[in-house]
Amino acid sequence: MANERRKKQEEGGGGAPEWMTTYSDLVTLLLTFFILLFSMATLDAQKMKEVSFSLKQALLKTKAGGDTFQSNRGQSVVTVNITNPEDTGVLRVDSKKYTREKQSMKILDEEERLLQSRIEETKLELKERIEAMGMGEYVEIIEERNLLITRIKSEILFESGSADLKPEGEVVLLKLSEPLITFEEEITVHGHTDNRPINTQLYPTNWELSTKRATNVVRFLVDKGSIKAERLTATGNGEYKPIESNDTPEGRARNRRIELSMMTIDWQNLGGYMGEKETIGQ
Question: What burial letters (b/e) apply to 131-146, b meaning 16+ CB within 10 Å?
Fold first, then answer.
């Protein structure tokens, strides 16, 4: 009889199994861990504006050729205070550094005004040269987003299927390069073609043709246009960035082009500025 009672007690013991205690502790620790992660990830919108300001200051000081990126090791913008047990992990701004940055705002604003002034002067001089050469049909000056783009139809620069500059093309480039000599910002030369396939020994595809054309323009601007090589970059886009439909001869002619693009940053609208578009020359 005693054995039967002992057996029933062993089989029907009250309470949860022992492994539930360990499992409950694990779940509690995981919950605490994720709450901690969430609190540390909480950002203040005002602090993000200060980060954007610091980025603005750093990029305005960057020179062509990458010198600033090599020499500037950066400085602390925000610090996290973890010595206070009650700290939630929210980012805190170093007030002394922020004060120094605020004091430099006038200098940065002046740099922006000087940049915009140089852009307007360059744009005006390019326009005058295009009109003086009677090249309004072949050359456009476009201001779009943060770029000042000089767009030249390929037919004035190259023969069909060739990347060698024509004499009249060299004259046009030489005239257009003079206002750019004093323009300190970097210039990217983009080569574009239409979608008609090419397959020659020199140019198996339009990639090679567009890249070689852009490279030859860069070399001319350095050798004859006296523009510093470190300011120039050549890229080939083939037929993949058309500005018109390739279904018509006129559209294909527009797509065969060389573009010289220069950055004209509007820092007052940092992070998503979509500026007015202005076309000069056509």
Answer: eeeebeebbbbbbeeb
Amino acid (one-letter) located at 14: G
Nearest-CA neighbor of 88 among 38, 50, 28? 38
Q: Based on the number of CB atoms within 10 Å of its own CB, is 254 exposed (0-12), middle (13-18) or buried (19 or more)?
A: buried
Domains of the chain: 24-103 (no CATH), 109-280 (3.30.1330.60)
Locate tokens 């002034």: which residue? 117
Spatial contact of 264 and 119, defined as CB atoms under 8 Å apart:
yes
Cβ–Cβ under 8 Å, residues 120 and 105: no
Q: Which residue has the tokens 């005004």?
A: 113
| pLDDT < 70: residue spans in the chain | 1-16, 40-109, 265-282
pLDDT tens digits for 87-137?
444 444 455 555 555 555 555 567 777 777 777 888 888 888 888 888 888
